[in-house]
């Protein structure tokens, strides 16, 4: 997915593992991995993207597995932006509210229909195994993305989700000592993990935070009235 964003000319807010786009050393690492120069400016948030659509700075969008027509903080503003786009592609398993604005809907695969991994909010990297056949014209998500990449001239050669996971491991220190083969054996491994034969750590950032100083940053919360601009 990171390759898709990079080659399509889109700028992420972070690289994988929330590594800073604006950090020179981090950027150099990903430039070496992907063998291409990368932008040093941070991308836009979802809300900022919708504002940019209204300013005619963004003409087209490719939305995969998200439903901003229902989840955006200001749904009327988001829906007007979706309607304003010159071209919208939605990849999803349902005809969502967002898909109703789409020029093209790509039929994605549901979790029981595909192999792959997912990392949840309590840091478990879990493997999923296909239990049901793909219905109708549905295609695997990684296959759809790769076909788009190939048709715009990119030489992508993934043959299985394990190939995607192998690239993720090169980019994401959080996956150290968590291999595809281990996930096949154990089904789930918690990160960070200190060794291939050790369980994941119960505490994350036990030795410091991934910042230049090693310290976390605490920001006071301010209350705002409900509505746009909150």
Keywords:
single chain; 230 residues; alpha/beta; three-stranded parallel β-sheet; three-stranded antiparallel β-sheet; 8 helices; 13% strand
Task: Please explain how this structure is put together.
The chain is 30% helix and 13% strand. Helix 3 packs across helix 5 (75-84). The chain is of the alpha/beta class. It starts with a helix and ends in a 40-residue tail after the last strand. The model is unreliable at 1-9 (pLDDT under 50).
Describe the structure in brief:
With 230 residues, the protein is of the alpha/beta class. The chain is built from 8 helices and 8 strands, in the order H-E-E-H-H-E-H-H-E-E-E-E-H-H-H-E.
Using only C-alpha atoms, the radius of gyration works out to: 19 Å
Strands, count: 8
- Residue stretches low in confidence (pLDDT < 50, at least 5 long) are 1-9
Give the overall pLDDT as a whole number.
Answer: 90
Derived structural class: alpha/beta
């Amino acid at each position: 997915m990171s390759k898709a964003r990079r080659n399509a000319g889109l700028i992420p807010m972070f690289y994988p593992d929330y590594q800073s786009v604006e950090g020179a050393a981090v950027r150099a690492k990903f430039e070496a991995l992907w063998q291409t120069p990368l932008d040093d400016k941070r991308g836009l948030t979802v809300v900022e993207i919708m504002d940019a659509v209204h300013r005619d700075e963004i003409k087209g969008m490719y939305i995969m597995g998200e439903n901003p027509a229902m989840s955006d903080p200001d749904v009327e503003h988001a829906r007007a932006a979706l309607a304003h786009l010159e071209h919208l592609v939605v990849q999803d398993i349902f005809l969502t509210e967002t898909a109703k604005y789409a020029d093209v809907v790509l039929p994605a695969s549901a979790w029981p229909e595909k192999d792959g991994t997912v990392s949840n909010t309590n840091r478990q990297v879990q493997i999923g195994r296909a239990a049901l056949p793909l219905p109708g014209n549905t295609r695997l998500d990684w296959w759809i993305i790769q076909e788009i990449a190939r048709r715009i001239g990119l030489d992508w050669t993934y043959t299985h989700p394990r190939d995607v996971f192998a690239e993720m491991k090169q980019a994401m220190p959080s996956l150290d000592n968590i291999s595809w083969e281990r996930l096949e054996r154990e089904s789930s491994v918690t990160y960070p993990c200190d060794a291939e034969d050790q369980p994941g750590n119960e505490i994350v950032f036990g030795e410091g935070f991934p910042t230049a100083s090693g310290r976390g940053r605490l920001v006071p919360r301010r209350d705002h009235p409900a509505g746009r601009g909150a």
